[in-house]
Structure formats: structure tokens, C-alpha cells
Amino acid sequence: MGMPYIHGTPILCPFAMGNPELKVEMEEKDNILKCYKLFVDDKLCSMISEQMNIYAKQFLDANPDLKPRSRARSWIETTSDEIRVLLGKGHTLYLENWYTSPRLVDKLVKSNTDCVGTMSSNRKEFPQTVKSAKLKKGEITAAFRGKQMVMKWKDKRDVIIVSTFHGTEMCEVEKKRRKNC
User: Fold this and answer.
1) Which PANTHER family does this entry report, sorted A to Z (predicted)?
2) pLDDT tens-digit map of 98-130
3) Neighbours of 157 (CB within 10 A)
């Protein structure tokens, strides 16, 4: 495979962050979905659908007392084709910090896909005001770029989230006590 270039400048596809040896040829008109499709092949889509189906079966087996009209009872096994077509359809993608970056979030928004999840503060284009903020427990700070909101909240440690559809509003949640703990 060739190296990714935009006007002669090499670029690294966001999904290849963990593998700098992998290079993808891209044109300026290409979007993040082309890069996504290179890494999300049929084998991975099959694995995701298999794991989803296993989890659903385990959930149903562990919860035999579900109400008769529960939506969980109408579970139909997911196929790899269904996984592949989710992007660009107005769905929400839940992210974790290993692959998330402000640039990726912008690309997802452009492809009509909302997202929410955690993000590391060492990503390119991460808002410096959020990164440098020193917070006390319970405090928050946030920065916005278009539809994208990056927020840092201080608990025992800093928690950084990104969302394209949430605001900075916080609400108190009553702690539930678990049985058998």
C-alpha cells in the first residue's frame, strides 16, 4: 500500500494510530469512511456481530424474569452486514479514548454520525484550555468546536469526555447500594 498524501504531505489515518507502519493512500476528497472501511473488514464485522450475539444470549439467559413485552425478548441475531452500514445513517457511535481524537469527531459529524465517549488529552487539536485546567473535585471545564464538546470533570482523577449532542449540564445521581457487596 502507498503512503497517505494530501497535496504531497503524508497523513496518518486516525484508525492507524497504533500501527505507524500501516500507510494508506488518500486523496483530499476522501473522507474518514474510506479509512474506516480499510480497517473494519468483513472479519472484524463478523467478530463484532458474533460478540454482540453472544452478549445478548448471555443477557437473556441471565434474565429469565423479563417482562413478556420486553424489547430484549425480540432480539434477532445481528449480521456483519448490519454492522458495516451503521455509519452515515444518523446513528450515535460510542467511543473509547484509544482511537478518539478531535479530528475524528469532526469527520464523524460531517458523515452524519454523532458520537460520545472518552478522549485522551494528548491528541492533536485537543483544546489547550481544557488540557491545562487545574480542577478541584466536582468541577468541570469544557470547550466547543462546532457540534463537538470536550469536557474535563474532576473526580478522583480527571475524566475527559467528548460529545456531539450533550452539553455541560451536570446532575446529581443518587448512589445505589448494591446487594451482596
Assistant:
1) PIGGYBAC TRANSPOSABLE ELEMENT-DERIVED PROTEIN 4
2) 768 888 888 778 777 888 999 989 888 899 999
3) 8
Amino acid identity for residue 168 in this structure: T
Give just the sign of the alpha carbon dihedral 59, 63, 64, 67: negative
Of 137, 107, 105, nearest to 119 by C-alpha is 105
Alpha helices in 63-101 (DSSP H): 80-84
Distance CA 159, CA 154 (A): 6
Which position has the grid cell 504531497? Answer: 8
Greater confidence (139 vs 18) lies with: 139
Beta bridge partners of 149: 144, 163
Question: Rounded to the nearest 5°, which phi and psi values hold at 136?
Answer: -95, 160
> pTM for the complete prediction?
0.55
- The β-bridge partners of 95 are 117
Q: Pick the closest to residue 125 from 106, 147, 151, 97 (CA basis).
A: 106
Give SS3 for 159: strand
Q: Provide the greatest CA pair distance for the chain.
A: 61
